[in-house]
Specification:
Length: 428
């Protein structure tokens, strides 16, 4: 194979180096192209643009493959725990027993958040969306840990920033929810595991003890693993680009939380349930909504369908669909919107519009149905996604800083007015 491609332009030939990844994916390295030829490339939405080299996640959208650090998602979802996967994603290898124990103990020890967070929380109107509260409180961690502002001063400090963020995010998330519903805040209980602790802070009250059901803990663990990392998507690239200005880990992750919030990204899980509820309220006619999704004059899209990179199937969606069936039957939940979802999926998968465009259910199509069965309120679904995605954001931020990547700064093609003279107000 040639190690360069040629670009012929204006009678000149430019050699463009080819770079190759460990799974044989190839890219044109155009980083010097403008200097040599005056040309930039343009690619709205970065549909065909690699922004970095990364050793964290391998994804083959055509074959439906997803691996964290080389390990297939199917094996991790079945056999691992979220904290173990978080360690793997951030540090590159599965932890041994000693490393995993230390990791768990360190995270568990830092679950408490400063009492002044209560004052911040009280400042939010009670109907605030928890994603807004989450991102604000994550940024505000910089005020409580100012040393995090100089994030790469020492490896120990980076480690502590990471530990604190993973430890405190469930506490912040549960407190955002409690604040919204006007219940007393519940403190972390350090004899519980990561998922059990979060559930207790969400659903426990001082007057009523709450013991998290092992079925729910297991399902939550799986969902968090499935969301833990997904290479260069909208929120992760946001984290990297914010971090590339040498902003702190907390500021960068807070930006990622905001990027995740939109309904085309992580907010799709909330939008799917709202869509399924609307179909149900409208008589349950899935075909009517398929027609709406196909109508180019109607802004409606089938939420939870389609993906920028998966063009065959989303491996996470397969695992989640099966998990949804298991969880609902184990918990004895009969949710009519699961039937609507299955009907909608079957109809879409045999419809030429969706088949031709390679639109398949994505991770968000069934995740909301499980969250609902677990008792998680709809406006917390994207918060759950953020809790899952946290190790991925941290790993990508850390990799970007360790590789010494330059500040993110795309170019553009200007399409505005050419130079013109200022006109006085009275003459306009
Ligand atoms: N319903 C109806 N039509 C769709 C849908 C959909 N959900 N998704 C894509 N299309 C059509 C789109 O109209 C376009 O048609 P045409 O070629 O005739 O113009 C074609 O399919 C390609 O769509 P696109 O918008 O160019 O594709 P994209 O790669 O830019 O967008 C997407 C990917 C995920 C934003 C999009 O599929 C979508 O909006 N899906 C619904 C929202 C959703 O479920 N998002 C969660 C994604 S997975 C979780 C995560 O973010 O990681």
């Amino acid at each position: 194979m040639s190690d360069f491609a040629e670009l012929h332009f204006n009678g000149e030939v430019y050699k463009i180096p080819i770079i190759e990844g460990t799974e044989n994916e190839k890219a044109l390295d155009i980083s010097k192209l403008r200097g040599e030829s005056g040309l930039i490339t343009i690619d709205p939405g970065y549909k065909n643009t690699g922004s970095t080299k990364s050793a964290i996640t391998f994804l083959d959208g055509e074959k439906g493959i997803l691996r964290y650090r080389g390990y297939p998602i199917e094996q991790l979802a079945e056999q691992s725990s979220f904290l173990e996967v978080a360690y793997l994603i951030i540090y590159g290898e599965l932890p041994n027993e000693e490393q995993l124990n230390k990791w768990r103990v360190d995270i568990t020890y830092h679950t408490l958040i400063h009492e002044d967070f209560k004052v911040l929380l009280e400042g939010f109107p009670s109907n605030s969306h928890p994603m807004g509260v989450l991102s604000s409180l994550v940024t505000s961690l910089t005020a409580f840990y100012p040393e995090s502002l100089d994030p790469v001063r020492s490896a120990d400090e980076v480690y502590m920033n990471i530990i604190r963020l993973i430890a405190k995010l469930p506490t912040i998330a549960a407190w955002a929810y409690k604040n919204e519903i006007g219940q007393p805040l519940m403190y972390p209980k350090n004899d519980l595991d990561y998922c059990g602790n979060f559930l207790k802070m969400m659903f426990g009250t001082p007057s009523e003890d709450y013991e998290p059901d092992p079925v729910i803990i297991k399902a939550l663990n799986k969902l968090l693993i499935l969301h833990a990392e997904h290479e260069q998507n909208c929120s992760t690239s946001t984290v990297r680009i914010v971090g590339s200005s040498h902003a702190s880990l907390y500021a960068s992750v807070s930006a990622g939380i905001n990027a995740l919030w939109g309904p085309l990204h992580g907010g799709a899980n909330q939008a799917v349930i709202e869509m399924l509820e609307a179909i149900r309220a409208d008589g349950g006619d899935a075909n009517k909504y398929l027609e709406k999704a196909k109508d180019k004059n109607d802004p409606f899209r089938l939420m939870g369908f389609g993906h920028r990179v998966y063009k065959n199937f989303d491996p996470r969606a397969r695992i989640i669909k099966k998990a949804a069936d298991d969880v609902l039957s184990k918990l004895g939940v009969n949710d009519p919107i699961l039937d609507i979802a299955k009907k909608l999926e079957a109809a879409a998968l045999s419809d030429p519009y969706f088949v031709d465009r390679k639109l398949y259910p994505n991770v968000d199509f069934y995740s909301g149905i499980i969250y609902r069965a677990l008792g998680i309120p709809t406006n917390m679904f994207t918060v759950m996604f953020a809790m899952g995605r946290l190790p991925g954001w941290i790993a990508q931020w850390k990799e970007m800083r360790e590789n010494g990547e330059p500040i993110g700064r795309p170019r553009q093609i200007y399409t505005g007015e050419n130079e013109r003279d200022y006109v006085e107000l009275s003459k306009r």
